[in-house]
Amino acid sequence: MTVKLSEKAKLIIDQLRNDGYQAFAVGGAVRDSLMGRKADDFDITTSAKPEQTKNTFSSFPVIETGIKHGTVTVLIENTPFEITTFRSEFGFSDLRHPDSVSFVTDIKEDLARRDFTMNAIAFSPYDGIVDPFSGYSDIQNKIIRTVGDPHQRFTEDALRILRALRFSAVLGFRIEENTRKAIFSLAENLKFVSAERIYVELKKLICGINAQAIINEYLPVLKAILPINGDYSNVHKLPKDHSMRFYCLFGASYKEALSILRADNKVKSVCNIISAAKPLPTNENALKLYISALGRENAKTVITYRKAMYDEDKDGIAESILNSGTPLFLTDLQIDGNDLTALGIKGKEIGETLQRLLVSVIIGEVANDKNALIEHLKNNNT
């Protein structure tokens, strides 16, 4: 059992040790490395006080990101590393952040303040693994368990409730029973968590391998903060695209939900497109016109969504049309506005004429050839 540190993380630990301080890699990167996953975003915890850490790394850029709580960020060749002094935390009046912290000298005391056992493991090349809460055993058994009393952990920081669900969805781990009970009993505390933090966690949760099972089991928890009215029974069939999956989850309430989450415009746009889309036509020409009206990227989204959720386009005809190079969009036409201007067509009539020509090409009335299009135009304007 060992952790593969990045060279830069090892350099930080080495420098702190050379100055007489304890130093360990800790948190998610240690967990991921123990799981055999790629790990490169290492956080460092140390017995050095913030000012001592700044002195150790005086030759590097140092940012005082959270010096009040013991954290500074050191840039090693433009890679940021958070270095935090061993600490205990006290009072969580806002159910999110400690009211005060106290610096400590024992790594085990620092690990005791963390959320889940799998995240409360420290590693140093000199001291090896420090795992006072059997986090590695829980990783091996695929269990999510809080460090200590789950009610206390979730009352300290309500976001941990969503983090537990997210880890379970992404890693496929089960949530230990006492931790599970505390999640249900304290779900209302999620109302104290900022929309931005909920949004970050939910984007990851909804794309997890175990997302559907977690939504099924913890629906009352999610409904404590969000209107969930979609049919998400096939959410696992969708690509790992949180925009599509959000629409699947929220259904008719997606606008309200995205407003609560303060979702970005791209997500809102994708959901709007899916919401407005009608069933894919079965007639080939009608399908081509349908795709043309949506535009290439929107058509990809709609086809992917409706295929996964409603089993439409079983034979892949829509995808074949989209990928075949068949003229479907104005940019595909072998004639443009300059050609129409030369023919005496002006103003908004140019766009309208191009659109009519595109429809004629799509339904096979005329070949997509400049001369043929001009001839077709003349014949139909007389």
Written account of the structure:
By secondary structure, this protein is an alpha+beta fold. The chain has 3 domains: 7-136, Beta Polymerase, domain 2, CATH 3.30.460; 150-276, cca-adding enzyme, domain 2 (Orthogonal Bundle), CATH 1.10.3090; 327-382. Helix content is 48%, strand content 12%. The protein contains 20 helices and 11 strands. It has helices spanning 7-18, 28-34, 50-56, 107-111, 135-140, 150-156, 159-171, 177-185, 195-206, 211-217, 219-223, 242-250, 254-261, 265-276, 284-294, 296-310, 317-323, 337-342, 348-362, 370-380; strands at 23-26, 43-46, 62-66, 71-76, 79-85, 87-90, 100-103, 122-124, 128-130, 143-144, 174-175. A 7-stranded mixed β-sheet has the order 3-4-5-2-1-8-9. The protein is elongated and about 90 Å long. The relative contact order is 0.06. The model has no long low-confidence stretch (mean pLDDT 92).
Topology diagram in text:
Layout: H1 7-18, E1 23-26, H2 28-34, E2 43-46, H3 50-56, E3 62-66, E4 71-76, E5 79-85, E6 87-90, E7 100-103, H4 107-111, E8 122-124, E9 128-130, H5 135-140, E10 143-144, H6 150-156, H7 159-171, E11 174-175, H8 177-185, H9 195-206, H10 211-217, H11 219-223, H12 242-250, H13 254-261, H14 265-276, H15 284-294, H16 296-310, H17 317-323, H18 337-342, H19 348-362, H20 370-380
Helix pairs in contact: 7-9, 7-10, 12-14, 15-16, 15-17
